[in-house]
Amino acid sequence: MKIFNFGSLNLDKVYSVKDFVKSGETVAVTDFQTFPGGKGLNQSVAAARAGGEVYHVGCIGSDGLFLKEYLEENNVNCDFVKTVDGASGHAIIQLNQKGQNCILVYAGANFRLEKEQIDGAFEKMSEGDIVLLQNEINSVEYILTKGREKGARIVMNPSPVTDALFKYPFHSVNVFILNETEAFALSGLSDAKEALDRLCSLYPEAEFVLTLGEKGCVYKYKDTEMKFGIFKTETVDTTGAGDTFCGYYLSCTAKGMNPKEACVYASAAAAIAVSIKGAGSSIPDMKTVEAFLQRER
Ligand code: RIB
Questions:
Q1: How far apart are CA 270 and CA 225, in angstroms?
Q2: Ligand 1 nearest-atom number relative to CA 40
Q3: Residue at 89 is within a domain
Q4: Tally of domains within the chain
Q5: Contact 133, 154 (CB under 8 A)
Q6: Which residue among 91, 256, 264, 290 is least packed, with the fewest CB closer than 10 Å?
Q7: Is the CB of 136 under 6 A from ligand 1?
Q8: Would the CB of 182 count as within 6 Å of ligand 1?
Q9: In angstroms, what is the span from residue 196 Cα to ligand 1's centroid?
């Protein structure tokens, strides 16, 4: 089962600070580094490191060639990654001493996907293959519609929340992987359980995996509901932890794991990712996750 990830590629400019900058304040930075990132790239890397056959579909500018190289180094097929005029997408990330982040995202080339490029990827796809999407590229609606026509299994990570998100035809989504912020926005409710129940009744044919940060995650599909805790590791940088979870969950289920096993593997991978700085570069491979689980179980 192939995974086609229609997703963003960003240069993550990470500024380490004592505390996040407040309105009207100027803050000195203690460290600065650039990492490969973008929700799309992170999820492709995670899915591939978990053993999936991944095709990335997206756009970069000439300043982002290393992002494509990074995907290729991680065994992600880049036949559908296009270099366009203008700048790549980038993120300005404040990383505080607790490992928490604040992120500003500039879409850049991520909003330059064209129909021909998307259609090319769909030609390569077979019925039953997976379409993975986040909300950091253009043409999300078109891809959802094409995915449904193709008979693909559509996995949606509705992140980040933007006005456009509320217009997408989500009835074609098979699996939602989302966090509390996204669940609150899509349901209009502010309690996690109520939000999940509301989403399940809005999209009764979809499976939901709701991540709750320190509180773990919940899987819900029709009458089946399962809760999982987290694996505790030192928090160095939480950037990309959700993406690691998402890519791992997806790849593990594509390889035949049930949702319970996939949630355990995804939680372990995310726990390892938060203990390492950077987004795309903090994602562990399957061997590391398995060794971690052997120690922790
Ligand atoms: O989810 C983390 C990602 O969000 C970062 O890598 C950044 O690029 C933004 O897209």
A1: 21
A2: 10
A3: no
A4: 1
A5: yes
A6: 256
A7: yes
A8: no
A9: 24
Pocket probe for ligand 1: among 35, 39, 237, 283, the residue whose CB has the most ligand atoms within 8 Å is 39
Do strands 89-95 and 101-106 pair parallel, antiparallel, or not at all (unpaired)? antiparallel
pLDDT at position 194: 98
Q: What are the Cα distances from residue 255, in Å, to 72, 119, 176, 196? A: 21, 26, 18, 26
User: 56: Cβ below 6 Å to ligand 1?
Assistant: no
pLDDT for res 280: 84
In a domain? residue 124: yes
CATH number at residue 234: 3.40.1190.20
Select from 166, 257, 165, 249 the least CA-distant residue to 210. 249
Q: Which domain holds residue 266?
A: 2-9+38-59+113-296
Q: What is the pLDDT of residues 90-132, one digit of tens each?
A: 999 999 999 999 999 999 999 999 999 999 999 999 999 999 9
Q: Does a structural domain hold residue 221?
A: yes
**Which atom of ligand 1 lies at the shortest distance from residue 12's CA?**
8
Successive 10-residue mean pLDDT values, the chain, 297 residues = 98 97 97 97 98 98 98 98 98 96 97 98 98 98 98 98 96 97 98 98 98 96 97 95 98 97 98 94 96 94
CA-proximal residue: ligand 1, atom 5 (nearest)? 38
Report the nearest atom of ligand 1 relative to the CA of 242.
1
What six digits make up the tokens of 287?
């061997």
